[in-house]
Amino acid sequence: MFCTSLLALITFAISAACHSIPANIGEDIALLAGNHRLISKRALSSFAVVVPPSALGCSDTQISQITSAIDDAKALARAASNALGITGSENSLAYQAFFGRGNANSATRLAIKLNNYDALISTLAPATQQVDAVKSDNLDPIGLTYACAAGTVLCPGGVIASAYQNGANALSGNIIFLCPEFFELNDQPTMVSAWNQERFLPSQGFVMLHEVQHLSAIVGEARRCNDECYDISCCLALPDAQKITNAENMAYFAAQILAEPTTGNPTSDSSCE
């Protein structure tokens, strides 16, 4: 449990001052049109899962959980995208807490919406193919593979999942490794209920959304995120430049909006006093 409430932490993160920018619907439309053309060119050619006898093989039960996690990640991304689609929502409580007042502009808001959330919704999919080994050259270089990393060096203490881009660690293809702890995580309703009770219990969908932020094949090279912080207090305290490049901030914002949608609504100067 957090030492202070989630809402108190988020409110504190933006309490120093208000930063309100006039809404410009025309600008939103122009930016959306240009960015949608870029996203339409971004696609993965295949989705596969590693199966036994590979040490990275996923059981039927795990494959089912991965599929559910993808659905939950999309639900989180959809909530975030809907909030960011509201003109002026860069002035919302949630946006300024997790993405920073210095990034409160239409261009940044829409870049995050389109690349970090909309691209996930339109691109991420369950596995339709199976592979029985992970070698240096047997994975689709423009595809995504899910692997279950039980009992390997990929899952040291506390690691839930990890993602590697095509070419990383001499591997072909994009790959998401899911550790045993991933399959013990909560379902999404439990995460939302706990969030509203000022506790954080991550769901499998939350982790899946986080890992996708590391893959430029989905979010684009310009919006690919790294790992600066995991703890919510640290994520809220990051400099603004790092808030929009930290994968956990992307996931926390989505969870905040799913649990408390009104915190994504634009605020006026008077409401910040």
Automatic annotation (TrEMBL):
The keyword S-adenosyl-L-methionine does not apply. The lineage of its organism: Eukaryota, Fungi, Dikarya, Ascomycota, Pezizomycotina. Keywords: Hydrolase, Metal-binding, Metalloprotease, Protease, Signal, Zinc. Belongs to the peptidase M35 family. Residues 129-255 form the Lysine-specific metallo-endopeptidase domain. The keyword Metal-binding applies. Residues 1-18 form the signal peptide. GO terms for biological process: proteolysis. One of its GO terms (molecular function) is metalloendopeptidase activity. Gene3D superfamilies: Collagenase (Catalytic Domain). PANTHER family: NEUTRAL PROTEASE 2-RELATED, PTHR37016. It comes from Cochliobolus heterostrophus (strain C4 / ATCC 48331 / race T). Its cofactor is Zn(2+). This is Lysine-specific metallo-endopeptidase domain-containing protein.
